[in-house]
Amino acid sequence: MRVFTTLDEVAEAVGQDLGASDWVTIDQDRVNRFADVTEDHQWIHVDVERSQAGPFGGTIAHGYLTLSLIPWLGSMVFALDTPGPKLNYGANKVRFPAPLLVGKRIRGHVTFVELNDVPLGKQLVLRTTVEIEDEAKPACVAESVVLLLA
Fold first, then answer.
1. Are 34 and 111 in contact (CB under 8 A)?
2. Residue range 120-150, pLDDT digits in tens
3. What is the pLDDT of residues 13-29, one digit of tens each?
4. How far is CA 138 from CA 13, 73, 83, 101, 147, in A?
5. Is 79 helix (H, G, I), strand (E, B) or coil?
6. Based on C-alpha coordinates, what's the Rg of the chain?
7. Is 63 exposed, middle or buried (CB count within 10 Å of its CB: 0-12, 13-18, 19+)?
8. Cβ 142 vs Cβ 149: under 8 Å
9. Quick check: helix, strand or coil at residue 85?
10. Are the CB atoms for 139 and 97 separated by under 8 Å?
11. What average pLDDT does range 95-113 have in this prediction?
């Protein structure tokens, strides 16, 4: 894991591939718990039997479940130990190119895209590609924004 202790180190890493997280299996229990929290119990996510005959041959993870795992996956790749608080500021672009079948393994591949000055400090834009093991297309590609307060 790469640890950044200064904003200069963060700036120097812009454009660099920081690497990938560990592989993590997405199991049905995790999907069911996410469905409970978000009240999204669409059968394609939670009905194992019915989804066997569905378009993907099994249940798939919610796109927003995959998106919500990005900070955790990123924490296996890098740490921002810079001075001041860090805040999730938002997302510039999020896409879900391929369904994530339950039982598959994913990992997050991280790149720092840009670092910009803002009145309160710096804005770091990073791209995370959530790869699916043995699949050509990723489950998610997202540009997230972190506010690094002075």
1. no
2. 999 999 999 999 999 999 999 999 999 999 8
3. 999 999 999 999 999 99
4. 23, 14, 33, 12, 26
5. strand
6. 17
7. middle
8. no
9. coil
10. yes
11. 98
Burial of 61: CB neighbours in 10 Å, binned 0-12, 13-18, 19+? buried
> And the tokens for 122?
């710096």
Report whether 102 contacts 62 (CB < 8 A).
no
Adjacent-strand bridge partners of 107: 131
DSSP letter at 135?
A: -
Question: 21 Cβ partners below 8 Å, 6+ apart?
Answer: 73, 74, 76, 77, 107, 108, 109, 110
In 3D space, the residue among 16, 139, 7 whose CA is nearest the CA of residue 77 turns out to be 16
Tokens of 87: 């805040």
Measured from the Cβ of residue 99, the count of other Cβ atoms closer than 10 Å reads: 20
Contact 117, 124 (CB under 8 A): no
Question: Which class for 126: exposed (0-12), middle (13-18), buried (19 or more C-beta within 10 A)?
Answer: buried
Q: Strand, coil or helix: what is 81?
A: coil
- Residue 138 one-letter amino acid: P
- Both tokens assigned to 73: 């996956």
Tell me the percentage of the chain whose pLDDT exceeds 90.
Answer: 99
CB 30 within 8 A of CB 89: no
